[in-house]
Amino acid sequence: MDExxxxxxxxxxxxxxxxxxxxxxxxxxxxxxxxxxxxxxxxIAQLEAWLQTPLFDRVGRRVRLNDAGQAYADExxxxxxxxxxxxxxxxxxxxxxxxxxxxxxxxGMRWLAPRLPxxxxxxxxxxxxxxxxxxxxxxxQEEFDAAIHFGTPDExxxxxxxxxFREEAVPVCAPGWLATHPLRQPADLLAAxxxxxxxxxxxxxxxxxxxxxxxxxxxxxxxxxHFLMLAQAAAAGAGVALIPSFLxxxxxxxxxxxxxxxxxxxxxxxxxxxxxxxxxxxxxLSQFRDWIVDQAKAA
Length: 299
Description:
Elements: H1 3-6, H2 11-23, H3 26-33, H4 37-51, E1 56-59, E2 62-65, H5 67-91, E3 98-103, H6 105-112, H7 116-122, E4 127-132, E5 146-151, E6 159-165, E7 169-172, H8 175-180, E8 194-197, H9 203-210, E9 223-224, H10 227-235, E10 240-244, H11 249-254, E11 270-276, H12 283-298
Parallel strand pairs: 3-4, 3-5, 8-9, 8-10
Antiparallel strand pairs: 1-2, 5-11, 6-11, 7-10
Helix pairs in contact: 2-3, 2-4, 2-5, 3-4
């Protein structure tokens, strides 16, 4: 027997074992993969004979994964998942000019979308699909070529970071709200309803500290997942929000939001283009990377 094949059981046996692990028994495993319970049992018995060790403990008509089976499953199941993903990618190969980019929702709507006509004019052959993602993910598990990340470069394992820009968050409110709640100094905001973005709940504490205000422990306040929801709440007169200025330029220009104190809050965090660290050279991605970096420098 070929030495490589010596350690490669049949795929039917492996998928039967995987299904039994995932579904907790032979009967439901058979239903999942289109085999009878007895067929699954035979496949697993053959696998156990191949490995010369039992993988399940049999108690009457019930089976339970034993320690050896669990150890085997821990290594085997991720490998089968990788085979499926590789097969899926090969079967659904995209055009070499197509990209899938994950973006923070507000960033995608307010910064990326208005600039896409320029990208299309510069690279008319590129076809870029965008999807919203708010948190880092494993590029090996997701079908994305790159993603927009806000934070620090070391927060996304397995990714290479291209710096885009830092942000400056400013306090904003509706002009009508400000007219009925006059603010003379930053400390006056301590009595106002203060809204923040849900992943940056400490932003107001940092803003007060930068403004030289002893804020103490701020009371709990509403938080929103997306900045544009935060902007709508502030524009409706619900209170004061701390929002990156580049995301609310239309509201500032129209006057639906105003800045009561021109004291922007900055930090060490920034926006980055995250790319898989082990990705092969992709001409379309290189074009997108060069474009977005140039756009960030010009912004």
